[in-house]
Amino acid sequence: AYAYADPVLDSFRRQFGRDPKPEAADYAAIRKNRGGVYTQFLRDAKALLSAAGKKLEAHVEARMLTSKQADSYMQIDWDPAAWIDQGIVDGINLKYLGGFNPYVQEVLLPKARRKGIPARMISEDLDPRFNQRAQEFAGNIISHCMEAGLSGLTLYEGWTFQRLTPRGYPLMRGCARGVMEQLSRSLLNSE
After folding, report:
1. Span of 34-48, 74-88, 143-157, 174-188 with lowest mean pLDDT
2. Is 146's pLDDT higher than 70?
3. Where does 1-96 have alpha helices with state H?
4. b/e map 95-106, b = 16+ CB within 10 Å
């Protein structure tokens, strides 16, 4: 049972009456089982967060959307559509996925709209530490989100945009100031 967490082993044993084997014959069952365990983890997290008056949002990444027959990311059959349908998530953040991706437009956005939950895009292109053109891209990325019908944009890894003073007050990092100003102008011009 090497390399499998207890919830995965317990679930697999209940379903198949034995431990999973690291053999090709078990790979699809292991991926499906791990996907079910992860979805249950999200359900449990949602219950805890809801009891505390908090919301649960999940990343949905391009690499999570491989064919179920393929060698999936982290050997998990991810099912973000079910997370939305079952009311597990209160929002989704699209990572490495553009707003015009067919799966986003045909599956995720319609489901999110029906449930009234936000679908936002995460863009690494706005990280001013690594992209010298981040300020230039900011307006285009806002336009992309709006044209695709997304709810907004998530500024990923917020620490890249601000830091805390010794007293704990947020302070905009110099390299991010231009990006934030361009985002503000784009949003104001879109109204």
Report:
1. 174-188
2. yes
3. 6-16, 24-51, 80-85
4. bbbbbebeebee
